Amino acid sequence: MSDEKQEMVDRVYAELEKVIDPELGVDIVNLGLVYKVDLDDDQNVFIEMTLTSMGCPLAGTIVSEIKNALKELQEIGEIGEVDVEIVWSPPWDKKMMSRYAKIALGVADN
């Protein structure tokens, strides 16, 4: 991946850290819910992520929040379309959380 592309992926991740899981109160990046961020040649963003549970009623809300978080980058022409795909494999596990998220939620680090 080129340095410019990696820099934009890093900026997208930084914006995604502003998206807070409404149930847990921690951002989706530190929760380990974002599995992959990719950019195509037209700067369209593809996000592969999961949710903490399959029956999560807030899936639509979280996807909307992601698109809102990235709207500014779209408006200034840094990125194109945003596509969010929710996947269930691999299944999310507490081990995927960052140290910050574990501390914030009081989860033992096993």
Automatic annotation (TrEMBL):
Residues 10-78 form the MIP18 family-like domain. It holds the Pfam family FeS_assembly_P. InterPro entries: Fe-S_Maturation_MIP18 (IPR052339), FSCA_dom_sf (IPR034904), MIP18-like (IPR002744). This is Metal-sulfur cluster biosynthetic enzyme. It comes from Salipaludibacillus aurantiacus. The lineage of its organism: Bacteria, Bacillati, Bacillota, Bacilli, Bacillales.
